[in-house]
What we know:
The structure is a single chain. By secondary structure, the protein is α/β, with parallel strands linked by helices. The protein folds into two domains: 274 residues, Rossmann fold (3-Layer(aba) Sandwich), CATH 3.40.50; 190 residues, Alpha/Beta hydrolase fold, catalytic domain (Rossmann fold, 3-Layer(aba) Sandwich). It is 32% helix and 16% strand. The chain is built from 16 helices and 15 strands. The strands form two sheets. Strands 1, 2, 3, 4, 7, 8, 9, 10, 11, 12, 13, 14 and 15 form a 13-stranded mixed sheet that branches. A two-stranded parallel sheet has the order 5-6. A hairpin with a 7-residue loop joins β2 and β3.
Amino acid sequence: xxxxxxxxxxxxxxxxxAMDLVTPSGKLQGALSSRATDIAxxxxxxxxxxxxxxxxWTYAEAHPGWQGVRNAGRFSPACAQHPYPEGxxxxxxxxxxxxxxxxxxVWSSLPEGEALPVMVWIHGGAxxxxxxxxxxxxxxxxxxxxxxxVTINYRLGVFGYMAHPELSAEVRSNSSGNYGTSDQIQALxxxxxxxxxxxxxxxxxxxxxxxxxxxxxxxxxGSPEAQDLFHRAIGQSGGNFRKLPExxxxxxxxxxxxxxxxxxxxxxxxxxxxxxxxxxxxQADDGRSYRAIVDGKFIPxxxxxxxxxxxxxxxxxxxxxxxxxxxxxxxLRMMPKNVQDYEASLQRRFGREVKEVLRxxxxxDIRKSVLALSSDxxxxxxxxxxxxxxxxHGAATFMYYFTHQPLGRExxxxxxxxxxxVFNNASHTSGFDSEPSVQLANAMADYxxxxxxxxxxxxxxxxxxxxxxINAKEYREFGSAGGRSAKGLxxxxxxxxxxxxxxxx
Length: 505
């Protein structure tokens, strides 16, 4: 029946024909992708009850479903958030925002017969910005390669990660914060219960994300609450193995921070905070950064310790980062003026390790060293730590290193540059649409789909991608059309950062 409906779609694609699809949650009316006549898209599907009013700062609850036919032809608003600051590389035209934002989007070829692997994308944005509806995340091209892509919204910033002692007292687990994480888990539960209607296999789900989306993948791999909701994981430029804030302990505990915000607002009760206008709450919060919290529920302990002990969901993982992450994250603005400034900054940052850091990132080419250091220290160490613990505890592990420079040397392989390629959207993206870029995107998407299908990116006509090992640190470099296999990524520098970060704990 689904195939018949799809053929009808094809016949009248240019007439704006919509289609109905029955799911366990209710009937949906979707439409064809604007990029392909054989892919249906269903947008703005609610997966949880709206967290508004008295439900602000409560854990996500399953949406009860709907009666009649729900129009799934338009994206939902993004979750309430601050815009990117003026001049940010990641600033985009503003989109509607709301606290009523817990929706997801699905792309599907609606296959007959065998169900397809599912890929659930978790967007980045420092846990404070972003949405699942960005054009970069359009899942059409991935769907054409034989998977069912899903993108989600989840609560952000003060709405998604604020803790408070009164909030903790409301629930049996005596925990609060990590509301955004609870949203992600509820979205995965929705996928498990509903994705078969879209032709997806609920027993073959891959979670993948970039930056804070990769942090989120990291949290979910570590979370007992997410057990059995996914079967593979892909982390792109983001892990949380440095010390996370604790819910209750420490001078700047998460609950203490929540109380400080209440005092700043001058509100007498948590109820008043819950009913404060969202824009006023954002204004008072002033766009501060947020991290996930060691809350005893979603994240029972520090992630570095959980992964050391093997207390995580042991699924195949594919992990990596980019060669010049820092160019779009402020590294170019803060570039040292001379050798003396560079060496002094390293002394302040690395102390007794400074000689070793200077050996690895020498001052004879400051720009090159600063950018390599920002990538390795800020991103590479986390991804290697994750890979190392996965290997130690028996999970199939693959590492990549993205070195392609889509917009030229100035920005290099910048933070988030790989996303266009993972979604195979280079041909649809200005500045990324050269023939070598399009070829690279097609190859990378093939690897990602292959991994989502089998838990291993190798196969078909793809070049060999070696398993990661602790001693050799094998990886796949993506700099040209098909990439190349190599080894020794951060072989010398990883131990330096390992020693430094252990001192912080």
